[in-house]
Structure formats: C-alpha cells, structure tokens
Write a structure and sequence with these properties.
Blueprint lengths: L4 E6 L5 H15 L2 E10 L12 H26 L6 E9 L3 H9 L4 E5 L10 H11 L4 E4 L11 E5 L4 H9 L1 H6 L2 E7 L13 H8 L5 E6 L6 H11 L4 E5 L2 E2 L6 E2 L1 H9 L4 E4 L1
Parallel strand pairs: 1-2, 1-4, 2-3, 4-5, 6-7, 6-9, 7-8, 9-12
Antiparallel strand pairs: 5-12, 10-11
Helix pairs in contact: 1-2, 3-4, 8-9
Length: 279
C-alpha cells in the first residue's frame, strides 16, 4: 500500500494556510493527489434554537456558513495554484451535528487524512468531530498536526506507542509506507504487563513483524515515571528526536457516535510532532 490520495479538511480560515501547506508538503513527498474540503459550519447546535427563531434567522446562519466555505475555497485554490501537485478543492456547508458523517464520506476514499489539532484556545468545537469522523466512521488513518512545527515530511525517526491493542496494530499497519522508509522505528512500551504471553519479550512480536517488512526497529521499554502515559511518551519522543508518533485511537460510543478517549486526547493536546492515528 502507498498513500495516493490525501485528504485535508479545513473549517476555519485561521488554520487554512498552515493545514494546506503541510498537506501539500506531504503530497509532494509521497507523490499523492490532494483533496481539500473547505467546510463552512453552521455552529448552532441542534436542539438549542431559541423560542421564536424563524426560518429567516436559520437561513442566515446557513448563509454565513456558505460564505465562509466559499471564502476558504478561494483562498485554498490561490495557495495551491502553482504548487506542483494534483489537487481538487471542494466547498460545502454542514451543520455541527452532521460533521462526523460528512467528513467520513470523504475520508473513507482517502489513504490519509490531515487535520489541525482539535484542542486549544483558538480551536473551534467542530474540529473534534472532524477527527472522529475520519477515524471512526471513515476508517482513514489521520495525521493530526501540532500547533507549530517544521514542514511535514516522510518521517525519518518514528515513535510507535505500543500496548498490544487492536487499535495500535491498526495504526502500525496503516503507517507501513512511512515505517518502511524511516531510518529507525522505535517501539515504545510503557509499563509492560507482568503477566501474559509477551511478558518476557514486550514488543518482540511487533518487532519481528516489522523487520520482515524491511523496517529498521528498536524496542524501548519505559517505566511510567510521570502521572500519565502520554506524558512519558511525549518526553521520550522529545529525547529521541522523533518526527512522528504512531498510535491507536481509542474511543467509545455514548452521546455521539464516537468520543475520543482520555489517552488519545492527552496526546493530541500536548504532542509537539505530528501524530498518526488509526482505529
């Protein structure tokens, strides 16, 4: 498998230039087609319309979202022109409650989805369902960009967050095109179980699997010396100078189709390098 179709989703003009710029860099690096979706969001939550709101007011919120989508689309096309990549820009309008399903309909036909970090003071409430839609329903591996950082590229040093879960294995398989070309992939195991079939060789089976694909692998076994696993992982990523993290995305169904679990959220909130996730 290789990455031949990359999807970038933009919902806010403030993050458009950086998101598209990083997506262009990756598309050039892997010779992929870039699809950009500029999504104008009606952020009025379903069920919260005030009494007496009429059709004209409802139409106005949709018109505002349409105007934002068209403005972002124009800016995106201007940024992409002359970049030397094959691309398509699509603008659309979506209500907040329908974002995950809409994004999933595009992500399911993409090899990789690139989105800005969903958490932060300047981040809209629509970014989390964008990530969730691509991951959980769209079944696309997702690269979540950090707040700032160098140009997105094919990684040379990769940290794999490994806990033997199905989600982590799915992420590793999705990232194989990157892992095969990396200088080194570190399988990071934090507080491995003291019981079970792999207690004497944590990460050993994954190491063997990757080695047979030609991946250069090392295993790093760490103790949980900080309150959260994500804190230990982030410190190790910095120590080894990794330029990408590979990890499983954990979530559960409750109020929405999918809610990102605490471990996933913590990593996305603090990571200083791109995080590739799959579910």
């Amino acid at each position: 498998m290789s990455f031949k179709t990359i999807l970038a989703v933009v919902t806010d003009k403030a993050h458009l230039q950086d998101t598209i710029g990083q997506a262009v860099s990756m598309a050039k690096a892997v010779d992929a087609h870039l699809d950009v979706v500029c999504l104008g969001v009606d952020r009025t939550q379903t069920g919260y319309y005030y009494a007496g709101m009429n059709a004209a007011v409802l139409q106005e919120t949709l018109n505002q979202a349409r105007g934002e989508a068209e403005e972002m689309c124009k800016a995106a096309e201007g940024q992409l022109e002359g970049q030397g990549v094959l691309y398509r820009v699509t603008d659309a309008v979506c209500q907040l409650a329908d974002i995950a399903r809409f994004v999933a309909s595009h992500a399911r036909f993409s090899d990789l989805t690139i989105v800005p970090r969903p958490y932060g003071d300047d981040r809209g409430i629509e970014l989390e369902p964008v990530v969730e839609g691509a991951l959980f329903e769209g079944q696309s591996p997702v690269v979540v960009l950090p707040i700032s950082g160098p140009e997105l590229k094919v990684p040379e040093r990769v940290a794999i967050g490994w806990n033997e879960s199905a989600e982590a294995l799915r992420a590793v398989r999705a990232a194989l095109p990157f892992l095969k070309t990396a200088q080194c992939a570190h399988i990071v195991v934090i507080d491995p179980p003291t019981h079970g079939p792999n207690r004497s060789d944590p990460g050993g089976q994954l190491s063997q699997y990757l080695a047979r694909h030609g991946v250069k692998v090392e295993i790093d076994v760490l103790s949980k010396t900080l309150p959260r696993v994500s804190d230990v992982m982030r410190r190790h990523v910095s120590d080894m100078n990794a330029d990408m993290v590979i990890m499983g995305a954990y979530g559960h169904s409750r109020f929405r189709e999918a809610i990102l679990g605490g471990a996933t959220r913590n990593m996305l909130e603090t990571s200083e390098v791109p995080v590739l996730m799959a579910h």
